[in-house]
Amino acid sequence: MAFVSFSTVFVSVMLFTVSPVAGKTEKTEGDTVEFTPAEFTVSITTMEWTHVDKSSNKIKAIKWDSRDQSLNIPNPRFKKITSIDTKTGKLTIESLTKEHSGQYKFELNGETKGEFSLEVSERLPIPTIERDTGNNPNIVYLKCNYDGSGHKDLLIIWSNSTQELRTMKPEEHDKSFIVEKSNNPDNYYTCSLKSPAGRETSLKAYERDLFKESGLGEGAIAGIIISIIILICGGVGAFFYKTNSVFHDLIHDRFSCLRGNAPAPTETNANVNVPLRNSPSSTQPADGD
Ligand SMILES: *[C@@H]1O[C@H](CO)[C@@H](O)[C@H](O)[C@H]1NC(C)=O
């Protein structure tokens, strides 16, 4: 028991001495931050939060005076988005911008009672997945692309539908994430960007799309094969048409459209096209009339 009380006291003392220089709070633009001062028992006359920005400009963020119950937020940087809990001194700032970065100092009755550090970073970009195929049809290489301007120390996290699979440190960001076909077309992959202040995730890349033949689908391939067959048949046909007089005449008679500019006859008048049918070279027996 004695040991427990001792450690409790020890921890409290540690917390008390550490709290004025508490670690940096990291937020992203648009977030809300709260800073809660250590508990106190003295009665409140005034409570004030001051902000020292990155350029060391010190301004009053918010001040509460219990004597006339007045709340004062003089600076436009904090107007409308800043509030204070008049019992605990807790500071709340909504809709953070990068300008809210810096040090926050809490003063109770004119005495400094706590200091907090805030870093607001730009909202993370949403990454996109780029796919590369190699020689192996069962493997694709994925890259996580993002607009990196203004962001340092981002981690890339690759996940499939069920779990996180790999974390890439900043120096590994141009490496590929290798995906092997699992034959579960509904499995999907995402990449996320992670900073201390937030996380943004790409759209899902489904396995059924990742291993799709790039370019030519089955339909296109069938079309190409049929075209090649037609070309070969046409070529063979043309060859015989030129070299074999029997074939030539057969074709010549069948397809009257091949004869110069003569208009192609319709079904009905083809049958009464007597002069051509009787041409000397014709081997085609005349339809019995
Ligand atoms: C996700 O990856 C893990 C580890 O490789 C694997 O065990 C799991 O089956 C995968 N999930 C799916 C849906 O394929």
Automatic annotation (TrEMBL):
Ranges for region Disordered: 268-289
Compartment(s): Membrane
UniProt keyword Signal present: yes
Keyword hit for Ligase: no
Residues of the signal peptide: 1-23
SMART domains per the UniProt record, alphabetical: IG (SM00409)
Principal cellular location given in the protein's record: membrane
Keywords, sorted A to Z: Glycoprotein, Membrane, Signal, Transmembrane, Transmembrane helix
Residue ranges occupied by any Ig-like domain in the UniProt entry: 127-202
GO terms for cellular component: membrane
Ranges annotated as spanning the membrane: 220-241
Protein's name according to its UniProt entry: Ig-like domain-containing protein
Organism: Danionella cerebrum
